[in-house]
Write a structure and sequence with these properties.
The chain has 331 residues and is mainly alpha-helical. It contains eleven helices and six strands.
Length: 331
Amino acid sequence: MKKFLILSLCILLICGLGLGAWFFSAMRNTKAPGPLPETKIILIERGMGVSSIAQRLKDEGVIASPLIFKIAAKLSDDKRPLKAGEYEFTPNIAMNDALKMMQDGRVYDRKITLPEGMTSWQIVEAVKALADMSGEVTDVPADGTLLPETYHYIKNDDRAALLGKMKEAMDKTVAELWPNRAPGLPVNTEQEALTLASIVEKETGVAAERAKVAGVFINRLRRGIPLQSDPTVIYGITKGEIQNAGQGPLGRRLLTKDLETESPYNTYLHPGLPPGPIANPGRASIEAVLHPEEHDYIYFVADGTGGHVFARTLAEHNSNVARWRKIRAGN
């Protein structure tokens, strides 16, 4: 009996030593290069636990042993859960590095950046062109309802849902900014503010000018002077479906006869604001309209350097226009 106990203890000791050696080797191997032969993007879906994630990584060739991965996750000093999302695993990534990547949530960055001033038609076309998204877009949202900025998504996300996020972002931005507007503005509703902001957005791409340009239009509205904004005339012609041939939104230069085209968006013919936004303004242009620069300018024209020169009188403005025409003729 004594010999049997001793033998049993020896066997247990040997097994323990073997298990310890295996465990030590396994943990050391979590830092060694893994089996993945080439870069691979893998989706870890929401709701997947450590066991499911370990098996997914094994099936995709990222790790060799789901068991060791689960042990490493359990013993990790970092107790944050593994986050869902797409991950870009590089060739031979070590198990510990893959684990840390998912604890940090360093997901593969699929994104679309929409510049301020895009029309909703342009935005929809850009979203349709994303080959890694799913779903159809059947309707074009009204201009002024989508916030241009950078949006992140994962593979096969729904296009309509992404447009919904853009609308939510615009609604949230307007709800935040509108209550804090400067007093006495000649814009009475959020829609009117967005309309004017869209005009400011299309008139200048210089961030430092937005509030000054907004101030010009505010002065004109207060004095009952037509806004005379070329982008509104263009929108009346294109309805936002612009040309993309590098020749401007009309596919050609705006002509004098275009300024006589009857449209509720023609701010040469109709004083006040047009019926609605002519594009989707960014946050900065909305802020500029709600907090315009106070001055007595009522005219501005391009200065040939990307910005504008401002004037208080028609005579001064005509002089600036003549200077701009010379610059343009020389190009």
